Amino acid sequence: MKVVVHPSGLSGNIMAPASKSAMQRACAAALLSKPKVIIHNPGKSNDDMAAMEIIKRLGASINEVDSETIEIESNFLSEIQKGKESTNEINCGESGLSIRMFTPITALCRNEIIVTGEGSLTTRPLDFFEKVFPLLGIKVSSDNGKLPIKIQGPLQPRNIEIDGSLSSQFLTGLLLAYSVSFQESVSIKVSNLKSRPYIDLTLDVMKKFGLTVPENNDYKEFVFRQRENVSEISHNEIVYNVEGDWSGGAFLLVAGAIAGNITVRGLSLASTQADKKIVEALMACGAGIAMEAKGIKIHSAPMKAFEFDATDCPDLFPPLVALAVYCEGVTKIKGVSRLAYKESNRGLTLQDEFGKMGVRIDLEEDDMMVSGGSKVKGASVHSRYDHRIAMACAVAALKADGATTIEEAQAINKSYPDFYEHLRILGAKVTGDKLGVAEILKKLMKDA
What we know:
UDP-n-acetylglucosamine1-carboxyvinyl-transferase, Chain; four-stranded mixed beta sheet
């Protein structure tokens, strides 16, 4: 699908999308919970749909109460205890979080289960499982460290040490699986942990769902102590509200800083989401930003180059690049090493696609240098099937010298299917599809 973004000014109010990081973790926690779970503001991205399909395959039922509420009831743990595992295969779609989080949870089962995925996920290295799972009594095999993966549990919680430098998502999966399976005090030691805020989010979700929360020793060791830290939830149901997504909201905020006078609602400054740090970048470059009761108000203003460490929030690289393009001078962003195993190799992809728009990006070891302040060209770019690349190019196109065509623009469906529609609502001229992306998705779901 091609989408054309024309130079546009933005104005008005918009609600940020639901956080897929929170939504997917909520799905995993609901699978492991005994009470009925009610989730308000559930996500609707492809990754969210993949997570919901996984927990259904593993024994949960999902009832859509209305467009803003779902109910989840799970018999996953009780069926495992009876030896009645409900599936022999799960498909994680293109979700990196799902593959890393749900594979340890699935390994609680005694039967052999095949874990598959689609698109770029099939090329990502997953040899972490082959290194760690045998230590936990899990049989595992893969296609040279890639999908499909065959596993057979049950997972047996033991004292282990893992490398957290590649992704915190592996640790999230282990923490969730340990929380419902350990019998004696046990710990997970972690070295070089990246993206600590995402572990904070995991622990917060675990607490709210009544799962056993480990003792956190400065993110270097997580200790489960014989049920001492069980949350006191005695209700017959758990109610969870999915907060707004700072990852998707970052693109809206940058769009406002470049081309608008808009208010983005639904983003909590108290959130544990790593991408909340976009606010620091916007302040550092001198963007016209103000925190108000109704939301974050942001408007275009002259901006200067800035320095930013994105090691713990690598998903911010694409919106940060779109922002830096319109900042006078050379912006330095640290953490490029975190970008190699995303939907695309984002460091090189950003360099190539923004290069088509006349933007110079240099990669120097772990740093990205973005030369801003020059005229941005309207061009034909390609998403590389990466949702964040498509959105970054669309945002940068708002003040280009001509229209920008985005090839394979439907990549946004992975995380933010309403993105182009939201730009339209704010006044951007976005053409190239007969229906808005949201309407297309609704029609496909109805016809399915």
